[in-house]
Amino acid sequence: MPLQLFDTWTRSVREFTPLKPGEVGLYTCGPTVYDYQHIGNYRTFLFEDGLKRVLKLNGYRVNHVMNITDVGHLVSDGDDGEDKMEKGSRRTGKSAWDIAALYTESFVGDLKALGIEFPTTLCKATDNIPEQIAFVQEIEKKGYSYRTSDGIYFDTSKQASYGYLGRLDIAGLQAGARVDLGEKKNATDYALWKFSTPDEKRQMEWDSPWGRGFPGWHIECSAMAHRYLGEYFDIHCGGEDHITVHHPNEISQTEAAYGTRLANFWMHGYFLITNDAKMSKSSGEFLRVQLLLGKGYDPIAYRYLCLTAHYRTQMNFSWEALDAAQTGLARLRTAVHALGEPTTPDAAFVARLIDILNEDLNFPQALALMHEALKSDLPAPVKKATLLKFDEAFGLGLAIWVPLVVEAPAAVRAIADARWAARNAKDWAEADRLRGELTALGWAMKDGKEGYALGKG
Ligand code: AMP
Ligand code: ZN
To answer: Which of 395, 405, 420, 440 is found 20 to 30 A from 1 (Cα to Cα)?
Structure first.
């Protein structure tokens, strides 16, 4: 079956055909680096990584661009409030530039830990200031901007199609915002360029034809997408929160400057929520990849957990679910490892996998197929090759996983063997006594069905 993807633009699943044969241009909105990313953010990045992997399984080369938002994202999704970077700088006592570097580095580390493939181009907003200024000039030239006392704004009333992606009720929004519009002409207008104010000393600011200041948040994506992918490319992704503000604004800018709606497909990952509430960085309570590691979880277990829910449904996070994912992953790893050397994948299973994934990335069903393949009576080398092929889509790193072997000294192994024998003979008192001996020597023994494992206790 040819690849079918859900396009938020049309609100329907439709067949994907690349604009250029064999190659896919993909833009994904990246992190705002004023703080660590939480595992909710990574749910979106994992969905995008899954999309990339499925595109590759379909034989496409993927030119993937992701931005790093290191300036201009204001605390409110409107255009007021502080820049998140300047706020982060105050919170940490470090410069805005230093925290951008710190959280970008942490982001890159998390991508590796989660097995997320690196984008072809990872670009920073602050490295693309001239491009953003030129883009705003283009919008100005086409007559879509106006000036207020605090910046240059996009006039959304000039575009009949504005907000189509979000199916926005423009009249309703306008009526609701009448009182606090300020100098903005329309409720949905947004800043293209903001002026530095005389009373604040911004750490990140640049000269522009309109005065010293900094770019609005939305212009960076339009400008970098244009620079690296051109006026019209295949797929643009982000989290579901972008459907109503950020992405309609990106589209309006590119439409004003170049007459295209930026991307052929618009895809959105649905949120990770906790106890049915949205997980967000600004709420101050969020789970980081490092925190999972600190609690003894493998980040890949989180990846596995994300595969169990379709990207177009919200997923509620719970520790029980993560425990179950960690156990499921451990079983899968051990079983795949035990299959020995791979030969050639089973063509029928691979074809079924691609069919399932080509139905709008149905990873939960693909995971079920993986377990079916594991239980099948395929010969071990073929089964192994099949599962490794599957893992090109899942990204669980099954090909490189090896069991952690702790070499115990012979004396320790002898006690463990004796305890195993006592346990099998149901001599519980002796088994407990020998466990005590192991503990005293600093070893822990874990009983399995077929045998035991020894670890440093
Ligand atoms: P930000 O760092 O806030 O710019 O967000 C980076 C990406 O994470 C964006 O694509 C957001 O839409 C997405 N995102 C934010 N919160 C969540 C969440 N709770 N679950 C899934 N994705 C999220
Ligand atoms: Zn964006």
So the answer is: 395
Averaged over 329-350, what is the pLDDT?
95
User: Which ligand has the shortest distance to the CA of 218?
Assistant: 2
Ligand 1 centroid–CA 436 distance in Å is: 49
Q: What percent of the chain has pLDDT over 90?
A: 75
**What is the distance in A from the centroid of ligand 2 to the CA of 455?**
46
Quickly state the pLDDT bin for 278 (edges 50, 70, 90).
Answer: low
* pLDDT score of 456: 74
CA angle 335, 338, 341 (to 5 degrees): 125
**Ion ligand 2 contact residues with beta carbon within 5 A:** 29, 221
C-alpha–C-alpha distance, residues 433 and 175, integer Å: 77
Predicted local distance difference test score (pLDDT) of residue 360: 98
- Return the ligand number nearest the Cα of 239: 1
Whole-number pLDDT of residue 444: 85
Whole-number pLDDT of residue 276: 59
Nearest CA, atom 3, ligand 1: 32
- 271 alpha carbon – ligand 1 mean position (Å): 8
Return the best residue to mutate from 44, 70, 314 for the ligand 1 pocket (most ligand atoms within 8 A of CB).
44
Q: Give the rounded percent of residues in the chain with a pLDDT score beyond 70.
A: 95
Pocket of ligand 1 (CB under 6 A): 29, 31-32, 40-41, 43-44, 69, 238-239, 241-242, 269, 271-272, 278-280
> Which residue's C-alpha comes closest to atom 21 of ligand 1?
271
Interior CA angle at 241 toward 235 and 242, to 5°? Answer: 40
Helix (H) or strand (E) holding 6: strand 4-7
At 55-93, the pLDDT tens digits run: 999 999 999 999 999 987 887 766 777 788 888 888 888
Closest ligand, as measured to the CA of 271:
1
pLDDT at 331 over 60: yes
Alpha helices in 246-379 (DSSP H): 246-258, 289-294, 299-307, 319-337, 347-358, 363-375
The residue to which tokens 């067949």 are assigned: 15
Does residue 178 carry a pLDDT above 60? Answer: yes
Q: Residue 350 C-alpha to ligand 2 middle, in angstroms? A: 34
Residue-wise burial string across 256-271, b where 16 or more C-beta atoms lie within 10 A, e elsewhere: bbbeebbbbbbbbbbb
Ligand 1 nearest-atom number relative to CA 272: 20
Distance 66 CA to ligand 2 centre (A): 9
> 363 CB contacts (<8 Å, ≥6 apart)?
50, 307, 308, 310, 311, 357, 393, 394
Half-sphere exposure for 393 (CA within 13 Å, toward CB): 29
pLDDT band of residue 280 (cuts 50, 70, 90) is: low
